[in-house]
């Protein structure tokens, strides 16, 4: 029998009166391997012979046919069967950044698996920018898709293709795609320099589209109903222009992009929303990324980016006078709106990256009443990591398949429906409802998936219908790959 949500609320109220024990040690290496494996469960297209999540099969094989182009491949963003380009590109950027910053800490097998995960995305992203003055931003009608509960292998919903043609703007998606391709060119250069060159050339092309036709893609009336409210651009397109330029600068060493982020920083709002980083808002990540040049190269013209990065780090230090990030009673970073763990994983990633930048240059952040050095930043990141892996009031791992206590009823079609290999008969759109409404655990374990996470009071009901808490996403997992790589290599950090 499934415990009621009241049970979990009662449990939280009880444990909040007593300090919960902190684990001395986590199997970070195991968690790293599983966090990468998750992406194989999100694959669209023809699956390879070495596919390790074997309850999945080929899907979306006709994607792009209405445009007479091949748009197969890529990733489903979450528990649905739609390929949203905006979060997919961000996911790719974060996987690539994980390799760039922490790849040398990964075991060779997991570094290879991460590179495979990146390439699965970039092969698709290259297709989205393959036609002049056009970018394909989405495949699949989400409104129809979300009214069904069916396996990706059974999809009979419209595979509508959403594209933006010049002079209509798509600065956000094109800018993030430029960032993804540029960062991936760095991550994959050592293994395939020719492919890396292709990625960089297409990153430049995508950025030109983004910059020449400025505006948010979700403002286009011909696609708005398909991309909103799911992945609208809520926070503006300006950050993606700076983000794309910053990654092109890092990947190409071209001073043109340095000049771009110098001259456009104020006009495009580099100082805005410094405490946000995710698929829609790149400001905090942009500031950390650009700060590397300031810390290591005395690029004083970019000092405003570093000042914003420093300010962001101070907001994360509870002992700092400028701290204003909310935490749950159990210690998890909390921001309202659902899928909260996306904030915990991206912020943890930035903490570790900035700690590395500071350590290499023997610097710290002055937060007024306290100084925040590399150790302090890493300690904050570790608290988030350990909470996600089970050091929380419920003793629940929010990574599926890690530990003996993890969410059993995640909001994910492929996981919750019987595998096509166990149940080869077609399951139509509405026929999947019995599985959605079932209180039984999902039959297929989506190993490594990190769900949306608990409420602000640390409660979690393990309810498939509560998608804000129980749905995993690629952009929650992607930054966690780099985070886990660091702690797997430094398991005794405390």
Question: What's the helix and strand layout?
Answer:
Elements: H1 5-15, H2 28-41, E1 83-84, H3 85-102, H4 108-128, E2 134-139, H5 142-145, E3 161-165, H6 171-188, H7 193-212, H8 224-227, H9 238-252, H10 255-264, H11 283-297, H12 303-315, H13 341-360, E4 365-366, E5 371-372, H14 374-389, H15 413-416, H16 433-436, H17 467-470, H18 474-489
Antiparallel strand pairs: 1-2, 2-3, 4-5
Helix pairs in contact: 2-4, 2-18, 3-4, 3-6, 3-18, 4-6, 6-7, 6-9, 7-9, 9-10, 9-11, 11-12, 11-13, 13-14, 13-18
Describe the fold and architecture:
- The chain is 46% helix and 3% strand.
- It has 494 residues and is mainly alpha-helical.
- The chain has a single domain, classed as Glycosyltransferase, CATH 1.50.10.
- A hairpin with a 4-residue loop joins strand 4 (365-366) and strand 5 (371-372).
- Helix 3 runs parallel beside helix 18 (474-489) and helix 11 crosses helix 12.
- The longest helix is centred in the N-terminal third of the chain and has 21 residues, at 108-128.
- The radius of gyration is 22 Å and the shape is globular.
- Mean pLDDT is 92; it is low at 1-21.
Write a compact overview of the structure shown.
The protein is mainly alpha-helical and 494 residues long. It has 18 helices and five strands. It is globular, with a radius of gyration of 22 Å.
């Amino acid at each position: 029998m499934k415990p009621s949500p009241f049970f979990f609320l009662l449990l939280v109220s009880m444990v909040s009166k007593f300090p919960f024990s902190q684990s001395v040690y986590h199997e970070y290496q195991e968690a790293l391997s599983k966090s990468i494996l998750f992406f194989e469960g999100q694959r669209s297209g023809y699956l390879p012979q070495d596919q390790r999540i074997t309850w999945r099969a080929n899907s979306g094989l006709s994607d792009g046919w209405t445009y007479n182009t091949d748009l197969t491949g890529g990733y489903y963003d979450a528990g649905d069967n739609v390929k949203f380009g905006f979060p997919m590109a961000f996911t790719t950027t974060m996987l690539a950044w994980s390799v760039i910053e922490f790849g040398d800490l990964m075991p060779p097998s997991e570094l290879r698996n991460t590179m495979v995960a990146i390439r699965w995305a970039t092969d698709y992203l290259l297709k989205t920018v393959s036609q002049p003055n056009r970018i394909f931003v989405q495949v699949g009608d989400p409104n129809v898709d979300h009214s069904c509960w069916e396996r990706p292998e059974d999809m009979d919903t419209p595979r509508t293709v959403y594209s933006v043609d010049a002079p209509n703007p798509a600065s956000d998606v094109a800018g993030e795609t430029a960032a993804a391709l540029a960062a991936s060119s760095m991550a994959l250069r050592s293994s395939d320099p020719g492919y890396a060159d292709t990625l960089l050339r297409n990153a430049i092309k995508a950025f030109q589209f983004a910059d020449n036709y400025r505006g948010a893609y979700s403002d286009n009336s011909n696609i708005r109903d398909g991309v909103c409210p799911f992945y609208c651009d809520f926070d503006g397109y300006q950050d993606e222009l700076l983000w794309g330029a910053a990654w092109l600068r890092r990947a190409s060493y071209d001073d043109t992009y340095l000049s771009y982020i110098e001259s456009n920083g104020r006009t495009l709002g580099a100082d805005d929303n410094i405490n946000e980083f995710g698929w829609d808002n790149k400001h905090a990540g942009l500031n950390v990324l650009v700060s590397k040049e300031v810390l290591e190269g005395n690029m004083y013209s970019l000092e405003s980016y570093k000042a914003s990065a420093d300010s962001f780090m101070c907001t994360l230090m509870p002992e700092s006078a400028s701290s204003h990030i909310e935490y749950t009673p159990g210690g998890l970073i909390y921001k309202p709106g659902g899928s909260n763990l996306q904030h915990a994983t991206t912020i943890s990633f930035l903490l570790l990256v900035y700690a590395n930048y500071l350590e290499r240059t023997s610097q710290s952040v002055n937060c007024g009443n306290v100084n925040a050095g590399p150790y302090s930043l890493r300690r904050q990141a570790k608290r988030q990591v350990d909470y996600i892996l089970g050091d929380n009031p419920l003793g629940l791992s929010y990574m599926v398949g890690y530990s003996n206590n993890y969410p059993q009823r995640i909001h994910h079609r492929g996981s919750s429906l019987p595998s096509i290999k166990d149940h080869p008969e077609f399951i139509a759109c509405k026929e999947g409802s019995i599985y959605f409404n079932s209180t039984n655990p999902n039959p297929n374990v989506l190993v490594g998936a990190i769900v949306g996470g608990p409420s602000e009071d640390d409660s979690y009901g393990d309810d498939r219908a509560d998608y804000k808490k129980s749905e995993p996403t690629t952009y929650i997992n992607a930054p966690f790959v780099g985070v886990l790589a660091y702690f797997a290599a430094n398991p005794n950090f405390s």
